[in-house]
Amino acid sequence: MMTIDNYNFAGKKAIVRVDFNVPLDENGKITDDTRIRGALPTLKKILADGGALIIMSHMGKPKGKVNPKFSLKQIVDAVSEKLGVAVKFAPDCAKAADAAAALKPGEALLLENLRFYPEEEGKPVGIDKEDPGYKDAAAAMKASQKEFAKTLASYADYYVNDAFGTAHRRHASTAVIADYFDADYKMLGYLMEKEVKAVDNVLSNIKHPFTAIMGGSKVSTKIGIIENLMDKVDNLILCGGMTYTFAKAQGGKIGKSICEDDKQQLALDIIAKAKAKGVNLVLGTDCVAADAFANDAHTQVVPANNIPDGWEGLDAGPETQKAFADAIKGAKTILWNGPAGVFEFDNFTAGSRAIAEAIAEATKNGAFSLIGGGDSVACINKFGMADQVSYISTGGGALLEAIEGKVLPGIAAIKG
Ligand code: AMP
């Protein structure tokens, strides 16, 4: 397989799939440019070689329709500034052949949002899965997805995938397009290579003790990874909103805390499995309860299994923070996905901050720490601690699937 480092793009055109799905404020201003910065090494390498760049990405969920709210035109200036060249813009990604052909060495073209075309995701629109015509519609869409991918492929000599965030999807630009390039004409970008290596560090090169911290609002979205990790970790910290399902399942009183009632048995199964496998499962014992879902709500620290009626747990309590830190500080491998509280509210960040600080300390002592998933990354950035951990992944779902042990279609399309 080609690696981007051992190729010189001089005089060639490369179409690069990046993940420029950056958050924008109501004025279309980028609020976090991490993803753009992540792709720069690959883009700059191609330009520095004297190659021409065709950059493609999705933004948001326009569901196969043109929607100015999700136009990549909004980020052209920011990309130009970061890349150091005036990036041209193709307002229709499927009709950019002339613009691509006109590119000179060292020039760059950004294509409009790929997801303005339903072919990108390859799912039929406007027809229900139960509908008798669905099967035919799905087959027709698969065929037009191939055509769409072929059109994108026709713009360039080389295909580079540097979009780890969408590597778990078999979309036109992330996987199907690779079929139109010979093995020596497609490769992973630097960011992808880094991501793959980071995942490998927590899956294959595990140094023990291994502590995984899984947080966030729902246990249902994390169950695959929790089960996979159970065979690998020494300590498993579960935190955030998902833990109230555990507290309730064990007979606790959780007030109006977030809870997935139908996942209580699942919670009990996880507890039993951890016990059977000798995994130290760390669940909160106290929490910061609030009388409203608001930053300025009244609060009190209460046992996590005895929350008064009308109150809800929004952060980990001090005793819990200490237990989390104790399970993290001595670790040699650390994975963190999902916050320990509603960190978006400044008054409910203490649990997540305690985790971040313990991770920083362990990292200083030689641990490999991988932080992934939009919210934990936002947490680390909010605390200004991004430089105190080993690796911050740009992938949310892709990272979780990779750690679950699944083969990611975006990577398989290139590596075979
Ligand atoms: P997820 O998308 O499942 O990774 O969850 C991330 C979200 O969980 C963040 O927006 C947090 O605000 C939210 N969250 C964390 N802890 C709680 C909690 N105790 N109650 C409600 N939401 C929470």
Strand order of the largest sheet: 1-7-6-2-3-5-4
Number of helices: 14
Q: What helical percentage do the residues reach? A: 25-40%
Spans of at least 5 consecutive residues with low confidence: none
Largest sheet: 7 strands, parallel
Global mean pLDDT: 95
User: Gap between N and C termini, in Å?
Assistant: 9 Å
Q: Give the distinct bound molecules.
A: adenosine monophosphate
Category by helix and strand content:
alpha/beta
Total count of strands = 18
Radius of gyration, in angstroms, nearest whole number: 23 Å
Strand content: 15-25%
Q: Shape from CA axes?
A: globular
Description:
This protein is of the alpha/beta class and 416 residues long. The protein has 14 helices and 18 strands. The protein has a seven-stranded parallel β-sheet, sandwiched between helices. A six-stranded parallel β-sheet has the order 11-9-8-16-17-18, with helices on both faces. It has a three-stranded antiparallel β-sheet with strand order 13-12-15. The longest helix is centred in the middle third of the chain and has 20 residues. The radius of gyration is 23 Å and the shape is globular. The protein binds adenosine monophosphate (AMP). Adenosine monophosphate binds next to strand 15.
